[in-house]
Amino acid sequence: MSGEQLYVSHAPADLELVQELFSTVKNFPFGVHIAHEEVESGRSRKRLEGRLSNSDVVVAVLTDASADSQWINQEIGYTLAKGIPVVPLYDDEDHRGGFIDDAEGVRINRQDLTKTIFDLLSRLRSELAPLGALSVPNWYIRFPCTIPDCDQPVTLEIEQSQRTLWKRSRHRKLLTTSCEECESTYYFEPGTIGYVRREDGFR
């Protein structure tokens, strides 16, 4: 998994929600473009078409705020015409319809965004999985060690299935990885792959 492109289509009013839901996703080594404003000029439309055409997956955030958005509807239609999969991320079944009515999506649980993020990651892993019915893509996040004067790259490899990750999350068994240089250990929440804490090494 490296170099894939993800485009997030959403209403401007949902920007804060979208940023929260995709905060972890943006840590993975693929591009995430979150649309920030409506496109007005022809030049902007061309740039938007380029982003959509180069996307491997498009996530359409469907809420009350986006129900009447012509831009989201156009982005969905353009994406499907290009043969790019669309993952609906929706508040209510009523927000789905048309050509994505049967698309497997993720329901937004505003009372438990952790579960929503987990379900979103599950769908993305499925959409971006390599060929092979039983294969599980080896996902990872890479970041610089935050110990002063260390700055070595640290990698958290995610080889477990989504089911295993959710079980670990329910039992509060954190994922860990360590810096090879200073031996500091980093802990992550298995459901969202969100950073929890760091324990300093002894070097």
From TrEMBL:
Domain of life per record: Archaea
Q: What processes does the entry annotate via GO biological process terms?
A: signal transduction
Q: Which SUPFAM superfamilies match?
A: Toll/Interleukin receptor TIR domain
- What's the protein name? TIR domain-containing protein
- InterPro entries from the UniProt entry: TIR_dom, Toll_tir_struct_dom_sf
Q: Which Pfam families match?
A: TIR_2
Domain named TIR is located at 7-94
